[in-house]
């Protein structure tokens, strides 16, 4: 199969309920079924602010209590985990566990193990999240990306650079409709044909109604 990948960008915050729900209910299921067709870019710290001072001290602020520390873990996970499937699972786990945690702390080792990540990478993520120079560089980069994308609310979803409304998006349908017909997987056929059949079925009704009204 030689098909152009569909690019999905997700700008999010680590302790945002809408971000948690989008990744768990939309992104992860779509990735599990259509990962051959998509390229996912994850951008945490989308609403945070960071200032790296000349004396190397760092000022960082986030919307929610504990969110900056959680964002550090996400940034480090994205930086250290090289396999997309494991990364998506780690991010999903980190969002869910962090949001539901009483102290809003991400259990890095738990999410690492649940995502089949090796011990060395888990250690790398932990060390990264505790190293100011490392995580501050990552968060500054994500802040720049979010500013360029004009992020005002999260999650912000771009599919092939086109914004999608996270409150109503059916990501599976959006992705399926962008896959070439010749490459269309089984998971998409009922979705695409179903929408086509709806148009075919409704159009004659609309035309019939128009002529009835015209005759009246």
Side by side, the strands of the main sheet go 2-1-5-6
Q: Compute the average pLDDT.
A: 91
CATH class: Alpha Beta
The CATH architecture can be given as 3-Layer(aba) Sandwich
What order do the SSEs take from the amino end to the carboxyl end, as H and E?
EHEEEHHHHHEEHH
**What is the domain total for the residues?**
1
Question: Which key terms come to mind for this protein?
Answer:
216 residues, alpha+beta, Glutaredoxin, four-stranded mixed beta sheet, 6 strands, globular, secreted, GILT-like protein 1, transmembrane helix
Helices and strands in order, then pairings?
Blueprint: E1 6-11, H1 17-34, E2 38-43, E3 49-52, E4 58-61, H2 67-80, H3 84-100, H4 108-114, H5 119-129, H6 132-148, E5 156-159, E6 162-164, H7 171-176, H8 186-215
Describe this structure in words.
Keywords: Glycoprotein, Membrane, Secreted, Signal, Transmembrane, Transmembrane helix. The termini are far apart. α1 packs antiparallel against α3 (84-100) and α2 (67-80) packs across α6. The chain has one domain (6-194): 3-Layer(aba) Sandwich (Glutaredoxin), CATH 3.40.30.10. It is built from eight helices and six strands. It is globular, with a radius of gyration of 21 Å. The model is unreliable at 196-207 and 209-213 (pLDDT under 50). It has helices at 17-34, 67-80, 84-100, 108-114, 119-129, 132-148, 171-176, 186-215; strands at residues 6-11, 38-43, 49-52, 58-61, 156-159, 162-164. It is 56% helix and 12% strand. The strands form two sheets. A four-stranded mixed β-sheet has the order 2-1-5-6. It is an alpha+beta fold and 216 residues long.
């Amino acid at each position: 199969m030689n098909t152009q990948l569909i690019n999905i960008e997700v700008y999010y915050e680590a302790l945002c309920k809408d971000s948690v729900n989008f990744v768990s209910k939309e992104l992860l299921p779509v990735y599990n079924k259509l990962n051959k067709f998509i390229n996912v870019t994850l951008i945490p710290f989308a609403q945070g602010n960071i200032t790296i001072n000349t004396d190397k001290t760092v000022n960082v602020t986030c919307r929610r209590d504990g969110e900056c520390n959680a964002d550090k873990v996400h940034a480090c996970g994205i930086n250290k985990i090289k396999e997309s499937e494991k990364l998506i699972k780690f991010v999903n786990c980190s969002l869910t566990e962090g949001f539901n945690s009483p102290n809003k702390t991400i259990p890095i080792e738990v999410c690492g193990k649940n995502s089949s990540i090796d011990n060395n990478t888990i250690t790398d993520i932990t060390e990264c999240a505790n190293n100011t120079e490392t995580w501050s560089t990552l968060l500054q980069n994500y802040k720049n990306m979010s500013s360029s994308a004009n992020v005002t609310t999260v999650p912000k979803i771009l599919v092939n650079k086109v914004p999608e409304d996270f409150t109503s998006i059916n990501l599976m349908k959006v992705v399926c409709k962008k896959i070439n017909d010749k490459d269309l997987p089984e998971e998409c056929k009922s979705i695409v044909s179903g929408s086509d059949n709806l148009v075919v079925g409704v159009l004659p009704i609309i035309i019939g109604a128009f002529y009835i009204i015209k005759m009246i």
